[in-house]
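README: folding subset

This subset contains proteins for which both the sequence and a predicted structure token string are available. Records are stored as plain text. Below is the entry for LysR family hydrogen peroxide-inducible transcriptional activator (310 residues), shown exactly as it appears on disk.
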Amino acid sequence: MITLRHLRYFEALSRHRHFRRAAEECSVTQPALSMQMQEFEALLGTVLIERRRGDVQLTEMGHEVARRAREILVAARDLMEYARTRQEVLSGPLQLGIIPSIAPYVLPRILPEITEAYPALSLNIRETLTAQLLDELVAGRVDVVLMSLPIDHPDIDAVPLFDDNFLLAMPATEDMPAHQRPQPEALDLKRLLLLEEGHCLREQALTFCGMSGTTQRQQFGASSLATIVQLVANGYGLTLVPEIAVPVEVGQDARIRLVRFADPEPYRTIGLAWRRNSSRRRDFEALAAIIRQVAGQILTDVKQREREAA
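--- output ---
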């Protein structure tokens, strides 16, 4: 009889294409994993993997079985979640994914709120890029993702939480009239500093500034907004900073000047996304309420400091 163990081991092998790495993920020995895969193939009566020196490849049947195995494993997890979450909101384990351009600015404020309000929750955080998080969400390896919207995927639902305006960050020595509000497309594109490929913040900046992916601009290979902001502080160029990031990345740094863009100001919408067939919508709505409240306070504080400095 085929078991969830067969499916879990094979699904891991289909992703890693390597017996040792798949065995490590499943916390079993490599010979045990190999034996389970031989048994799985025998039960199905077909060859699923081609064993090669150093790695494995899936057969045509193997690709289809891997796809179906993922669907079954996700459904099994959702069934367990349904039984558990019928008892209490935000209890038990929860895997929260979050993109790097949000995590450092929201997590320090929401985690104490979550811990106090929902002590029975066992929260695990996964921070990585958008594309990776969406793959893991669909595959059931994370439950819910805090990210930039919109998301165009038939298996994912999302709810918007707050709009996050972009501000222009420049060296304080720049000569610009005090009340001038620039248009994004009027920036000197060769001076614009961006994150590496794969960051949604990069793609949003390109869109707002009317840039193509091949437009010439400075390349520093930075993978964090903190690095980009320090480059700006030291006179290397300009960048776009999400308003939610201002208290952490800019704060009281006198070397950096922040300028709002002309209306309509460019912004991104931050929201929560989860699998459409997940049974934990009540949990996600409770989590959304906390994030929305905390983010609203952060953005209010930024605007208040801006008025005081004017």
